[in-house]
Amino acid sequence: MNAIALHAHPSSDYVIKLAEARGVLAQAAAQYAGGDGAASTVVQASSLGAEDMVISHLINSLQLDIAIFVLDTGALHQETLDLLQRLRASSRAPVSVYAPEQESVLQFVAREGKDAMYKSIELRKACCGIRKMEPLGRALAGKDAWVTGLRREQSGARGEVPLVDTSAPRTKINPLAHWTWGDVWHTIRENKLEYNALHDQFFPSIGCAPCTRAVSVGEDFRSGRWWWEDETAKECGLHVKDHDAAAVSSLQSRRAPA
Ligand code: SF4
User: Fold this and answer.
1) Which terminus of the chain, N or C, has fewer Cβ atoms within 10 Å?
2) How many domains does the chain fold into?
């Protein structure tokens, strides 16, 4: 049974939530439109997960001026890279790919080993700092807002995610904040959207290959991410608050070669 057959069960207020998501995206495109031919200052950060494929679909179908970017950490599954190619081939909105600085990755792996992420939370976050946070900073440079696939249902830490988060200087727009997993898959089925083949192998949340595993029936949505760590540590830095991001950044710089 594939992910669509398993999960595509919309909630009773799906139509309202779909309209809400469309409205939030349209509002963001209008609010952050670049004047006089300048680029829009809102962008979608896509992990190529199911939620992000839905958001890219909404951006494309509404013909919104919101570009898409993907972080290719150099440690993604082949299935994710294959989906990236399909998205780039089919998307109306431009899709940019940001990769980490090769020299930083090479030095980190040479110093700490290719399995460093399993040795300590500090090393895992340092790896995320190099492979995700640094390229994320470049992807968001000059942008006033970004669109993410965060949903309240994904984890306890995300239980109060707002539709529009203005708590940081750069606004975060979460059009699917109120959606269920069933709503996401219903949209994928109804619109015949592309999705990551790993979702058919019981990977609900997909990150880098060394740090993602399949989940079993009854396990939490994000239990396959950094499964060896305590629940409270399970964010890579992309969606932590400023004071936590500063801590990640500090860890990364402490580990940088002299
Ligand atoms: S998710 Fe794992 S492999 Fe990817 S950047 Fe973080 S620690 Fe490194």
Assistant:
1) C
2) 1
